[in-house]
Structure formats: structure tokens, C-alpha cells
Amino acid sequence: MTSTQQKLDEVELLESIYPEFTEVDIEDRANCVELASNPCEYPVLRLHLNFPVVKLCVELPSGYPECEAAELRFEWTSLSTTQENELLQKLTEISTDSLGEGSLLMIVSAVTEYIESLSIGSPSCEDTVTAAVAVSLNRLWYYAHHIYSKEKRSNMMKWSRELDLTGFILPGKPGVICIEGSIANCREFNVRVRAMNWQLLKLQHDERELEGRLFTDFEEMIFDVHGRANNHQDLGQFRTFLEDKQIGEVFTILFGF
Questions:
Q1: Quick one: which of 16, 41, 45, 52 has its CA closest to 28?
Q2: pLDDT classification of 1: cutoffs 50, 70, 90
Q3: Is 189 helix (H, G, I), strand (E, B) or coil?
Q4: Pairing with 112, which of 48, 77, 87, 155 sits 20 to 30 Å away (CA)?
Q5: pLDDT at residue 140 above 90?
């Protein structure tokens, strides 16, 4: 795979996970697509990451990601100079330390986490940051062909504690995963869960700008189990569970009926 194709693949993954933040230069993308299969051409690819209190310009130079780090600069920010310098230093370190791997996902995750950690005295800035945190609350719904593996289930339980996620796993065939938390942490979970081996795993529903969480912890949901291998849960009971939470429409989104 050429370095140009690696750039395109990383940007497309970023767009699929963080569409609300990502804006790619149209001409740069078209040029990269045209030259993607040519190992002798190394076009630059620029994109903008638009956060509520920061607009960051990222340039992927010709040698990215093998031997050149992503170049970063703020186009606009409501942060103080000290905060700008602190954040830029953190992002530059991530970019430099990720040579050979690609750094876009880690950069976005670092910015969102920094925004959420801010405690700013200025009322106007505080309102902006509070709004950014509110907008960042996310709920993702996955449909899986089946969820049997104890290792997968254990990993997801561990990640939920690490990433402060609430929701549930519905093991069996079919399986369902629901997570809710900050956008950054939900996206990190998304990267990890997709890295595992699945017969079929689809992100069926992505809810954003939530007013609050539906769940207080992360747990496995067990309803009446049936089937020859005792691997099918009672979906009627699961539908009732969702209806009791006032989200009955999610059942149709997940299963199509």
C-alpha cells in the first residue's frame, strides 16, 4: 500500500468515526485519489478539525506516516495562550511519537479529552466548554450476528469501566451492544470493538447531543433463553425493556421489524 493510500484510508476512518469534527480539503483529496496507486508521488493532504472551542489545521506531509509527523496549527481558538501552548505541545508529542502508525484518531481524542477537562474562570469560555461537553454525550447501538465469546464480553466490561461508559451487552444470537458516554470515549470503544474478530458487527444507530444518560452502569442483559443451544434470548422481553426506557423505536432500528 502506498503512503498516499494510507493517508486516504486514515482520513476516511476519521470521517466515519468523527464526522462532526472533520473537514477535508477537496482539491487535496482529489489529488490523492488520483495518485493513490503511484508509489513515486507523495501528495500533501490537508484537513480541518472543527471543535467547539478550537479549530485545528492538520497537514499530512509527503512522508506521512512513515517518516514525517503531521503538522499542526490552530486556525482559531477561544483558549488562553497558556492553554493553547499546553494543548499544542501535547498534540505535537502525539504526532511525533506516532511515526509509522498514523496519529489522526489519537489527535482528535486528545483534543476532545482536553476540552472536557478544562476549568475556565471566564463565564463566556466556561459556557462554551460546558456546551462542548454537553454536545459530546453520545450513545451507540451495535447489532452483532452473535456474542458468545467470554473474552470479548470481559474486554467490553473492562473498557466500559476504563472509559466511563454506561449501557449493556445483550449476549447470544443475535447480540446487541449499547454504550453511552463522551464522544471521545465512545469513539475509542468503537475502535477497540471493531478490532476484534466478528462474523458480523454493525453500528446501527448513533445518537448525539443527548441531554443525559439512560443507564447508570454497564452490564450484561439476560432475558429468557431458548433454542437448541440455549443461545437465543427472548427478543419480546428485550423490546419491552426498551419500551420501558421510552426508546422502543430502537428495536426496529436494530432488527428491522
A1: 45
A2: low
A3: helix
A4: 155
A5: yes
